[in-house]
Request: fold
Amino acid sequence: MREVGVGENLDQYKLIEVIARSGMASIFKAIDQIDGKTVAIKVPYMQFESDVVFYGRFQREEEVGRRLNHPGIIKVLAPRRKSRMYIAMEYVEGPSLRALMHEPGGLSVEKALDLAQQLAETLVYMHGEGVVHRDLKPENVLVTAEGRTRIMDFGIALDESARRLTWSGLSSTIGTPDYMAPEQVSGRRGDVRTDIYSLGVILYEMLTGHLPHSG
Reply:
């Protein structure tokens, strides 16, 4: 097995453009050749496919994404068959919240409060379904052209309805330190208050242009 690239087919999907690359995966814009819809495909780099912890995290992201059904959450799709590890998702046109915050002039108070309220409403739904995101940050929020927020990346989410995985303890301290609640930093798994803390940090940053704490 080798890395896939633009112009190739991955099962029913035709990869047409690289949207983003991270240290662990590439995200492609693709066409579902069955129904013609545009989708996003997240494909991990080959060196991570044999990593047990990474595999568990990737599987958790897909399972949680398929179960949750809310307009404020990126929808995870179910391919007819999968020949390798990847996640198929709805394609959302729009920048990340981080990109919006970096635009000249930043965000107005009204816009920041509107975005924060949308995120809070999505968290209410998510927490009601027994899911804690645990890595809420501006990079994991997309904003559509209509100004609607979409939360993504449930790789380290806590899903209370799922069976406990053996690697879950290893993942408890994974996250982005600037947005992590104190209990995450100290190694505890966190609960719904963890996401509320992260949302508070995001709102603070949207309003002031900087984080409430450094280091």
